[in-house]
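Duplicate of earlier report; FAD-dependent monooxygenase input re-posted below.
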Amino acid sequence: MKTLIIGGGIAGSTLAYALRRYGHEALVAEARPSHRDTGGAFLYLAPNGVNALRALGLGDVPAVAGGFEASGMDFYNARGRRIAELDGSDDLEHYGARGVVLRRARLHAELADRAQAAGATFHFNSRLVELRTHSDSAEAVFEGGLALTADAVIGADGIWSTVRRLIWPDAPTPSYNGIVDCGSWTEVDLPDTTGQQMYFGHRAFFGYTVKDKTAYWFTNLPRRDEPARGELDNLDQDAWMASIRRLHENDPASIPTILQAARHSLGAWPLYDMPVLDTWHTDRVCLIGDAAHAVSPSTGQGASLAIEDAAVLAHWLQQNRTPRAMFEGFATDRKPRAERIVRFGRQIGARKITSGAGNLFRDLTLSMFLRMGGKATAEQYGYRVPDQPANDR
Ligand SMILES: Cc1cc2nc3c(=O)[nH]c(=O)nc-3n(C[C@H](O)[C@H](O)[C@H](O)COP(=O)(O)OP(=O)(O)OC[C@H]3O[C@@H](n4cnc5c(N)ncnc54)[C@H](O)[C@@H]3O)c2cc1C
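Output:
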């Protein structure tokens, strides 16, 4: 079966690699000019994401891409009092892996490199504009006129998916979460942290991890009205950083220390997630990754779910059935899990929005919320893709 993957991001590159590993042809059409320097800040690859990479024979990718292990989270209120923790000390024992913090662009570049080295063909500068499906094939047309035909088309083109819009014009669009996220990595004289440090600051949520005198930090700025597309591109960095410093000036000392050292943030991203879609596939087309089920970054699960999707779909695509039957199997496996994690992310995001008197209630109930969330976290981290032995390291 000839499979055309639209979007060579984290899901698309991993799928291309997996298809080649199983001996199939893999063709990727990517809108960007290259897979290098694709931007973004850093992300957390959870134990389930690390395990899914291992199942595909890509277990060394997090380390090669410069990742470092970070388990568990400590939560503090605006006065610096520790109000809860998510213990990660047993992650290795429970899940067979620890989570990893790494730069998104490096993870992406490494996955795309591996796919190309395995024989996948990438067409860069190829932005999908039309998609026609027939009873026995699908035809994709790209800006500039390139046209490619395949037996099946996989929409791995991210949260603003063109495949989704062309095939399901009435499907819901991404839903704004009321938060603008920004962050970077910054040299700073602070000791290494064991896990992620999360602060419900006076006016905004702030998180960081320190490794080898570099702080990987982010702040979640509450903003009720949805920014217009492009409004936060090309910000004046001096003015933007000054406003972030002001927002956190009365928060515990480590936060102003990091922000004084930081010259810029790598971007300002309004946060979205995807409402539930009725279906992820037709006879010839199937969505994966953020195109199907973008989750709030608050879950730390977006990249991990994209990698799981790629591993599970590659498993189904070996079944020698019709594309529809294989897509059906894939969606039945994946939809309930992804939708649960999207819901979970929305609940976490709501707790990050600062609201005066509500904060005291949140501080008092956070431990209980995390205990309840502990079950969800165990389910997220404990997932194994098909064909993966439980004790695979
Ligand atoms: C600020 C921020 C922080 C995050 N933090 C985390 C985290 O801590 N942990 C975590 O797991 N995840 C995190 N994520 C989410 C994570 O980056 C994504 O969920 C993950 O990359 C999904 O992979 P994907 O391949 O589905 O989409 P993407 O990586 O977005 O890839 C989509 C690809 O499709 C291409 N494309 C788009 N349109 C077209 C078109 N018309 N034609 C051809 N190609 C096209 C794009 O150029 C891109 O390369 C974060 C995201 C953000 C924004």
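The first helix runs from residue 10 to 21.

Merging into the original ticket.
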